[in-house]
Design goal:
alpha/beta; four-stranded parallel beta sheet; 23 helices; 14 strands; disordered N terminus
C-alpha cells in the first residue's frame, strides 16, 4: 500500500493542468465569482484549492428501488474522495427506474447519456464516479462519460438479496413471469400471488437474476471501468460500503495519473465485455448497450462479434434465467466475476488496462471458484455455446437476436405459421381469447415496437396465449422488433432489424405466412418468394410518427437501429469534431 501511494505521488501532474483550475486558479474577475460562490456554500479554500474536483453523478431517486441505498453510498464515496485529497461534488442525474418509468427506460437511456456528458463538461470537475445499476443507468452513464473523456470510475449498485416465498428462493422477474403464467392458467390463487408479491424483492439493489442490470454491471467490470469484484457485491453487503469508499479514493489517483478512457481503452476491452457476457448467460439487452458504448469510445463492436464469441465461449454462470438454480447472491459467494473471468481467461485479452491501473489479467490472477455448480468448469457448462445467437435472413437482413441458453431446445430449429399483431393492445387482447386460432407450433409476431416505432420497450417476451398455457405449453417462438427484460426467458427472437416502423421486412409479414428458424445455422427466413416480398414492400405505407413534439420527436428523428446500438446519430464519435472545453469569460 505504501509502494502504491509512492507510485501515485511520483506520477502526480501539476495542479494548473486540471480542468477545475480553469475555474478556480486565475486571478481574474470570473474566478473571483467562482471562488466566492464556493465560499458561500460554507467551504474554505483548504477544501478545494490545489485539489482535484470529483463529480459524483448520482442516479438516486425516491422512485428508483434499485438505488435506494445511494443516498448513503454517495456519502461513502465522498469519504473516500476526501481521504485521498480530492474535493467531491454530488451531481444528481435522471434516475431511470426500470419498474416505474414508462413507456420504457430505453426511451431515456440516451437522455441520461447526454445529461452525463454535459454535466461533466459544464462543471469544474476533473474526474467522476458514476453511480448506477438499474438497467439503462449503466450504459447511459458510461456512454456520456466516454464522450466527455475525463477520468471516471463506475460504481455498480449491486444486486438485491434473494427473494423468498414459502421457503422457495425467488428470482426477480424470472419467477414473476413464471408464476404469472401459472396464475393465468388458473393454477395459482390470489392469496399465494399476494404473498409472492411481498417476498420477491426484499432489499435495495438491482434484480438478482442475470437480468440486464447484473449483465451490464458485470460487463462494465470486464471492460475495465469498475474496481475488481465490484459488480458482484450484493447491495446490502458491508463490502459494498467499502467498495464505494474505494471508488472515491481511486478516482483521485486516476485524475493525478490523467488516466482517461481514450488512454486506457482499446477494442480489446470491449471484446472482454462480450466474452464476459457470453459466460454469464447475459441479457439480450447487452447487445444494444455494449455496441453503443463501444461506438462512443471509438472502438466499435458489432453483432458479428457477439455471434463469433457465442460460438466459442460457453455459459458457465449457473444463474437464472439461463441457469436453473442460483441467483447473484450465490454468484458472489462462489467467487464473483473475477473467479468467472479467471475460468474463461483463455477467451480474454488479459493485457487490457482497467481503472485501477492494472491489466485485467493482473486483476483476476489467482481468483478462486468456491462452488463449481454456481460457476461451472469449462468442461461442464450450463450451455456449450454462448448465451446469445444472431440470426439473419430475408426477414432480418441486419440481424435478430435470440437467447438459446434460455429457450426450449425443440424450438432451436423450427418452422411455423405466423400470427401477426401490429400493436401490443391487440396482442394482449388476443392472447386471453379462449377461441384464438393458435397452436404451440405457431410463431407469434409483434411489430412496430422497435426504436422508431415505440422507443423499443421490453415487449419482446410475448405472453403465451392462455389457451395454450392450459394445454401445458411452456414455450413457443415469438418474434418482434422490441427488446425483452433480461430476466425473461423462452424462444424470443428480438431486435429484428431493420424494424417494421421504417419499412423493414417484419412490416411485410402476414398472418398465415410460414417462418423458418434455424439457430445452429444462424438463419431466419420468411417463406415467400422475393417477388411477393417486393410486391408487399411497394404497397407498404409507414405508420404515423408516435411523437410530434418534445424529446420523443427528437428521439424518433435521430435514433439508430438496434444493430447499431440505438444511440442518437449526432452523439456518436464519428458524427463530428470533439466538443471543445467550455468558454469561461
Amino acid at each position: 500500500m505504501v509502494q502504491r501511494a509512492l507510485e501515485t505521488t511520483l506520477m502526480k501532474r501539476p495542479y494548473e493542468s486540471l480542468r477545475s483550475a480553469r475555474w478556480f486558479a486565475p486571478d481574474d474577475f470570473r474566478s473571483f465569482g467562482h471562488r466566492s460562490r464556493v465560499l458561500q456554500m460554507g467551504y474554505s479554500y483548504a477544501d478545494w484549492m490545489g485539489k482535484p474536483v470529483i463529480a459524483i453523478v448520482n442516479t438516486w431517486s425516491d422512485a428508483n428501488q434499485c438505488h435506494a441505498h445511494f443516498k448513503q453510498r454517495v456519502e461513502d464515496v465522498k469519504r473516500g474522495v476526501l481521504q485521498a485529497g480530492g474535493f467531491p461534488l454530488e451531481l444528481p442525474a435522471i434516475s431511470l427506474s426500470e419498474s416505474m418509468v414508462k413507456p420504457t427506460t430505453m426511451l431515456y437511456r440516451n437522455f441520461l447519456a447526454m445529461e452525463t456528458e454535459e454535466l461533466l463538461r459544464s462543471h469544474p470537475v476533473d474526474g467522476a464516479v458514476l453511480m448506477g445499476g438499474c438497467d439503462k443507468t449503466t450504459p447511459g452513464l458510461v456512454m456520456g462519460a466516454l464522450s466527455m473523456d475525463i477520468p471516471f470510475i463506475y460504481l455498480p449498485a449491486g444486486p438485491m438479496l434473494r427473494g423468498n416465498w414459502k421457503g422457495k428462493v425467488l428470482g426477480s422477474g424470472s419467477d414473476a413471469f413464471k408464476y404469472w403464467d401459472e396464475r393465468r392458467a388458473g393454477r395459482l390463487g390470489e392469496q399465494a400471488w399476494a404473498e409472492m408479491e411481498a417476498g420477491i424483492a426484499r432489499s435495495h439493489g438491482t434484480c438478482m437474476t442475470m437480468g440486464t442490470a447484473a449483465t451490464m454491471m458485470g460487463i462494465a467490470e470486464a471492460v475495465g471501468l469498475s474496481l475488481p469484484g465490484a459488480s458482484s457485491i450484493p447491495a446490502a453487503d458491508a463490502n459494498h460500503i467499502r467498495m464505494s469508499a474505494d471508488c472515491g479514493r481511486r478516482i483521485v489517483e486516476m485524475v493525478w495519473e490523467d488516466l482517461t478512457p481514450a488512454k486506457m481503452l482499446t477494442r480489446a476491452n470491449f471484446e472482454n465485455g462480450i466474452a464476459c457476457a457470453m459466460a454469464m448467460g447475459c441479457s439480450t439487452n447487452a447487445v444494444v448497450h455494449l455496441i453503443a458504448m463501444s461506438r462512443r469510445a471509438g472502438h466499435a463492436v458489432s453483432l458479428d462479434d457477439f455471434d463469433a464469441f457465442s460460438r466459442r465461449v460457453p455459459v458457465i454462470a449457473n444463474i437464472r434465467p439461463s441457469g436453473d438454480t442460483y441467483l447473484m447472491e450465490d454468484f458472489f459467494y462462489a467467487g464473483g466475476l473475477p473467479a468467472m473471468l479467471e475460468r474463461i481467461r483463455g477467451h480474454l485479452r488479459t493485457d487490457a488496462r482497467t481503472v485501477n491501473g492494472r491489466t485485467l489479467g493482473e486483476n483476476i490472477e489467482g481468483a478462486e471458484v468456491y462452488d463449481d455448480d454456481v460457476i461451472r468448469p469449462l468442461a461442464n457448462p450450463i450451455y456449450a455455446e454462448g448465451a446469445l445467437a444472431v440470426l439473419r435472413g430475408n426477414l432480418a437482413p441486419d440481424g435478430v437476436v435470440i437467447k438459446p441458453s434460455a429457450c426450449a431446445p425443440h424450438l432451436l430449429q423450427h418452422s411455423g405459421r405466423a400470427l401477426v399483431f401490429d400493436d401490443y393492445p391487440a396482442l394482449k387482447k388476443a392472447v386471453e381469447d379462449p377461441e384464438l386460432d393458435v397452436t404451440g407450433d405457431d410463431i407469434l409476431v409483434l411489430r412496430n415496437a422497435g426504436p422508431r416505432g415505440a422507443g423499443m420497450p421490453e415487449w419482446g417476451m410475448l405472453p403465451i396465449p392462455t389457451k395454450l398455457l392450459k394445454q401445458g405449453v411452456k414455450d413457443m417462438l415469438r418474434l418482434s422488433d422490441a427488446r425483452m427484460s433480461g430476466t425473461s426467458y423462452g424462444g424470443c427472437l428480438l431486435h429484428c432489424s431493420p424494424e417494421a416502423a421504417i419499412g423493414g421486412p417484419l412490416a411485410l409479414v402476414q398472418t398465415g405466412d410460414r417462418i423458418t428458424v434455424d439457430v445452429p445455422a444462424r438463419r431466419i427466413h420468411l417463406d415467400i418468394s422475393d417477388e411477393e416480398l417486393a410486391l408487399r414492400k411497394a404497397r407498404w405505407t409507414p405508420p404515423p410518427p408516435r411523437y410530434e413534439r418534445g424529446y420523443g420527436w427528437m428521439f424518433g428523428r435521430h435514433i439508430k437501429q438496434a444493430n447499431e446500438g440505438c444511440d442518437f446519430d449526432f452523439l456518436e464519435t464519428s458524427f463530428g469534431k470533439p466538443v471543445p472545453e467550455p468558454d469561461i469569460f
